[in-house]
Amino acid sequence: MHPGHLRFENVPLARRKDGKASELYAAWLNTAWEGFNHKPATGEQLEQMLQAHEIDARVLTGVYDDARPAELVDPLVPVATYSSFAKTLNVGAGVLPAHLITLVTVRPTHRRRGILRELMGTDLARAKAAGFPLAALTATEATIYGRFGFGRATEQQRMNLDVRGDVRFHAAPEGSVTQLEPAKLGVIAGELFERFHGTQRGSVGRQESYLRHATGRWGSEGPEPDSKTRAAVYLDASGTVQGYLTYAFAGWEAKPIRLNVLDLVAATPVARRELFRFLAAHDLIEQVGYPFAAANDPLGWALEDTARLTYTEREHSLWVRVLDVPAAFAAREYRGSGRFILRVEDSLGLASGSYAFSVVDGRAAIARLEGDPLPDASCDVQTLGPLLLGSASVADLAEAGVLRLADPSNANTLGAMLDLPGVPHAINGF
Ligand SMILES: CC(C)(COP(=O)(O)OP(=O)(O)OC[C@H]1O[C@@H](n2cnc3c(N)ncnc32)[C@H](O)[C@@H]1OP(=O)(O)O)[C@@H](O)C(=O)NCCC(=O)NCCS
Predict the structure, then answer these.
(1) pTM of the predicted model, to two decimals?
(2) What are residue 40's DSSP bridge partners?
(3) Topology annotation, domain 323-418
């Protein structure tokens, strides 16, 4: 356990009398940034971050060690940071409130003393009490958060499109693409994302920083304007905007010479395809890089020459922690009808229990059962994330040993209800 002289404090999103960010907030943010190896924020960057955190209604926690020598260390500087905010997650048949956790850092002087465990245990219990059916985060390392009940739910990979010469698509072009100043994306970016978010399983709501990035107010170097950002929108045949794109030239030194997609939000599959066609039509460019491709990105099927696509940097993206099994799983899609009992073990005690699923025509009612009925399947809470979002089939989870079936020959019966087409996918992190 952590030693008693550590103080766990809420850090308010406060301003000084002159309107500038409070010293406490500044010290918290700079400690979190240092944890991710960023330089300390300038005055203007602090202001931008505070504005964005105010809009997101972030809840910040700092951990302070009063045993540090006061003559050497500003006592406002925390030894650990943690923050959360409320957004939503699309779980297939519904968009649910999601407790998002981010900017988790523990200084090397204080690691492995149980600080993260204390922060996480308290925060998840609070999120459950506040009625959140699930929590989510993105992780720097895959081995940290499983012990707290988070399961790997989405993956992403970098897609590199070779655009030398004439890139040919099977489908004929449709609609039109217009290049514009990023600042013009203000309202469009938010609206298009909400349309996309409402239809894409695995999509997670966006924090304020995304809007600021899309409109060029924030750039790749941090929360400050970036003149490198370019923008375009796709309009369908009726002139309705159905997708937008921000992208930047990587510089003449980068080889192959390339454009990097910063953000691409399409409300329709045609909009997405046409925005890639637009990217592929740039002269003097050899490659287009897109970092948020799904594990099964459909672009390969659109191109005549699929060898133009290569994939790198495949990694886990969203980690989901179920807090309320009936509420979370009622917002998921199923197939067909049937019944089964799932037993969940949760070392934090938040989701443990046996649950009866009654599936009727693709939707389920879930009830927590008293006593200890014989389950058809059992798992640790960390398997619930991928099970909820349909990230893997029942057969694959059973084969991996993380979903234990009472009768292994039942994998097909359960899979017929629980397996979903495609994979969940998120196009942003936090
Ligand atoms: C990851 C980090 C937050 C852990 O904080 P911490 O206070 O040292 O963690 P705790 O002491 O509470 O450890 C809790 C458990 O996680 C384990 N753990 C912590 N960091 C781990 C890591 N990087 N890899 C694997 N296990 C880890 C501990 O061994 C401990 O396991 P146990 O409960 O089974 O004994 C901290 O090391 C850190 O700041 N790392 C750099 C930034 C980072 O990666 N942040 C995560 C961003 S999403």
Answers:
(1) 0.95
(2) none
(3) Nonspecific Lipid-transfer Protein; Chain A (3.30.1050)
Atom 23 of ligand 1 has which residue's CA nearest to it? Answer: 144
Q: Which of 63, 115, 117 to mutate to test the pocket of ligand 1 (most atoms within 8 A of CB)?
A: 117
Q: How many helices (H) and strands (E) does the chain have?
A: 11, 19
CA distance 246 to 292: 13
Q: Could you give the 3-state DSSP secondary structure of residue 67? A: coil
Half-sphere exposure of residue 309: CA atoms within 13 angstroms, side-chain side: 21
pLDDT for 331 equals: 96
Q: Write the residue with the smallest CA distance to atom 28 of ligand 1.
A: 112
- Range list of H helices, 23-97: 23-35, 43-56
Residues of the chain with CATH 3.40.630.30: 6-152, 156-316
- pLDDT value at position 4? 63
Q: How far is CA 353 from the centre of its chain?
A: 27
Residues of the chain with pLDDT below 50 are none
- Fold (CATH) for 156-316: Aminopeptidase (3.40.630)
Its CATH class, for the domain covering 6-152, is alpha beta
pLDDT at 70: 87
113 lines ligand 1 (CB under 6 A): yes
Cα separation, 75 vs 11, whole angstroms: 13
- For tokens 């694959």, name the residue: 396
* Burial of residue 190 (number of CB atoms within 10 Å: 0-12, 13-18, 19+): middle
Residue of the CA atom closest to atom 17 of ligand 1: 144
